[in-house]
Amino acid sequence: LNEVMAPATVKYYAEYPGNSGKYWAIPLEGDAVGWAYRKDWFEDPKEKEAFKAKYGYDLDVPKDFKQLRDIAEFFYRPDQKKYGIAIYTDNSYDAMAMGFENALFSYGGELGDYATYKVDGHINSDKAVAALDAYKELYKFTPPGWAKTFFVEDNQAITENLAAMSMNYFAFFPSLINEASNPNAKNTGFFANPAGPHGDQFAALGGQGISVVSYSKKQDEAMKFLEWFIKDETQKKWAALGGYTCSQAVLKSEEFQNATPYNKAFYETMFKVKDFWAVPEYAELLQQLNQRIYPYMIGGEGTAKETLDALAADWNATFKKYGRVQ
To answer: Sign of torsion, CA 305 294 189 75?
Structure first.
C-alpha cells in the first residue's frame, strides 16, 4: 500500500494504533489544508516595489512562515478594507486544530508520541510554543470579525476581496476556480502550506480512508472493491472525475498536476501531511484543545507556554482515563 499510495496518507488514514504497522483501511478521499491567494495583488508592480522596499525580498508565494507573516502584514490595510490573511479560528469542531496544526507541524512540533501517548514535552515543547505564537500572530492581520471562522468564511475572504491569502481545505477550492462562485477566479492562485523556521514543511490532514467493517457479510466482495480501487487506472479515472486521489503515480503525473490550478499544490501537500490523534476518544482531545487554545488565540489570555502546558495536562488526564498511560 505504501508503494501505491502517498506514504503519509497511508500512515494517517490506515494505520492503527499509531506506529504499529497494522493497517485497517486504504486512503479514499485525500484532503489537507492549503492556501489560496490573490495573484493580481501579488503581481501588481507597485505592490511588488513597495514590498521589496519594506522587507528586502521579492513579493511572491511565501516559502516559509516568516514570509507568510510578512505578506499578511503588508496587505493589512483596514482603511482600504483590505486585509492580509484569513485563517481558521472556529472552536466548535476541528477548525482551530487544523489551523494550529499547520503551524505546529511545520515548526517541527508534534501533538505527542503516537506510540506511547506521551504528550508532555511534545505539545508544550519550545517548537510547539513558537508555532502557537506564530499562528496567533497571523490572527492580527485577519479581517474584522474573524474570531469564529472556518471554510465558508475563508473562501469568502477570496471571493469578497477581503484578504490576500486564505487557508482552506483543498476540497473547497473548486468553487474558487469557478467564475460563477468566485468573481476573482482568474486571479486566484494556490500554494502548499509553507515551511517553518527549521525547514520542516507539513500540512494538516483532512479527508478520509475506507475500510471493511468487521460485521460485513460480504467481506470478500468488499476486499475485491478495495483491490480494484487502488489500481493506478482506477485512481486516474477517480482523479479525472474530481476525486482527491492519494495515488503516488497519479499525483506525480504532469497530467494531474496541470488539470486544475490547485492540483500541483495538492500533490506537494499529500506527501507532507500529518494528522490529529487517531483514537476513539479523539473528540474529547479535540474539545480540550479548543477550550485551551481559543482564549489565548482570540482573547490574548495567558501565554502560549501556559496554554500548551495546560493542554498537555488535559490530554495526559484523558489518556490516563482510557488506560493508555499510567
So the answer is: negative
